[in-house]
Design brief:
Strand 11 and strand 12 (246-250) form a beta hairpin. Helix 2 crosses helix 7 (266-284) and helix 4 (150-166) runs parallel beside helix 5. The N and C termini lie far apart (43 Å). The strands form four sheets. The protein has a seven-stranded parallel beta sheet, with helices on both faces. It has a three-stranded mixed beta sheet with strand order 1-14-13, with no helix packed on it. By secondary structure, the protein is of the alpha/beta class. It is built from seven helices and 14 strands.
Length: 327
């Protein structure tokens, strides 16, 4: 009697019109922080799924380059984590996380060129309208939260919510500002600015938690370092007197206080790259809490794609794809 072994090759194709709906239907927030750096905890099937199904629009200034630097260093160490990064263009590379870096015609993107002005929001609209397969969009701060007011941050939150309403098939990623403001930091030692940055980041976190958003907590990753000797996480903080109380303010861990790439250490960049992969796997459907697929809306269809060898005598591997069609 012939035996058949089943090889599960799971690729969830999330379809909404011409774009894939990912985490835009969430009922709870997704917070990507220092606890999401366990790259090898992510099953490779979900890395594959992210590479197959996610097209990422990522606009940023120099600090935001920490994410792409980290992704490139991870890829150089292990080609399974392949990315394809196009500057002002969207690559079409199979088996790679495809990234549209910047806006059309520019790759150094200030707030005014993504969300802060009508012209900037139109640049974001142009990228999404001209590249209908993009289903994730994100902009990254430089040091603006050091001096921004609560109203400035609210303007950021409001603008992203407008874009979310216009592009419901795109998942917009919120992000905190870097934490490079603290004692002894090579980049910025202004403690008052560090306190303001902390308040503004807390404002962003509070909004995302209250409104079920996806947040890449850039600042949190800055502040925590895993000590391989003690095998414990260390949080870097300083005390700041705000006129009424002494406030404990997290800031970039001294372990990262070196300008190797994008104003920080290679290690910090790699940590952020690992967190990006965690985020993308979650967006693709992986549930990090259970290790299972997040139950979709809509229905699933199954397509037998190939078996090997074919024809066969005693044994064959059957490979099939699972499609999740959402409406």
């Amino acid at each position: 009697m012939k035996s058949i072994s089943i090889v599960f090759v799971t690729m969830f194709f999330l379809l909404f019109s011409t774009q894939s709906t990912l985490y835009s239907q969430i009922t709870s927030p997704l917070i990507i922080d220092h606890t999401c750096e366990g790259l090898y905890q992510i099953p490779m099937s979900w890395i594959d799924s992210a590479q197959a199904n996610i097209k990422w629009h990522y606009a940023h200034t120099s600090h935001g380059g920490q994410l792409t630097t980290g992704l490139e260093r991870i890829e150089n160490n292990d080609p399974a984590y392949d990315i394809a990064r196009g500057f002002s263009t969207l690559p079409n590379v199979p088996d790679a996380l495809c990234i549209f870096d910047g806006q059309e015609g520019d790759t150094y993107i200030s707030p005014e060129e993504y969300w802060r002005t009508t012209a900037g929001m139109n640049l974001t609209r142009d990228v999404l309208n001209h590249n209908p397969t993009i289903n994730v969009s994100q902009w990254s701060w430089c040091c603006q939260p050091n001096s921004y007011s609560a109203d400035d941050i609210q303007a950021y939150l409001d603008s992203i919510s407008v874009l979310e309403a216009e592009f419901p098939e795109v998942t917009f990623i919120y992000i905190t500002g870097n934490a490079q403001t603290g004692p002894g930091n090579h980049y910025n030692q202004n403690l008052a600015q560090g306190y303001n940055r902390y308040l503004r980041n807390e404002q962003i976190r509070g909004y995302c938690i209250a409104n079920n958003k996806v947040l890449f907590d850039f600042a949190d990753i800055d502040c925590w370092w895993y000590n391989p000797t003690s095998e414990e996480w260390e949080l870097s903080t300083y005390e700041y007197w705000n006129g009424n109380d002494s406030v404990t303010v997290p800031f970039e861990h001294p372990q990262y206080n070196i300008n190797q790439a994008a104003h920080t250490s290679y290690e910090n960049c790699e940590n952020k790259g690992k967190a990006v992969w965690w985020m993308m796997a979650e967006l693709a459907g992986w549930d990090s809490l259970t290790g299972l697929f997040k139950e979709p809306s809509g229905f699933e269809s199954y397509s037998l794609s190939q078996n090997y060898p074919n024809p066969f005598d005693q044994h064959t591997d059957i490979r099939y794809t699972i499609y999740d069609i959402r409406f």
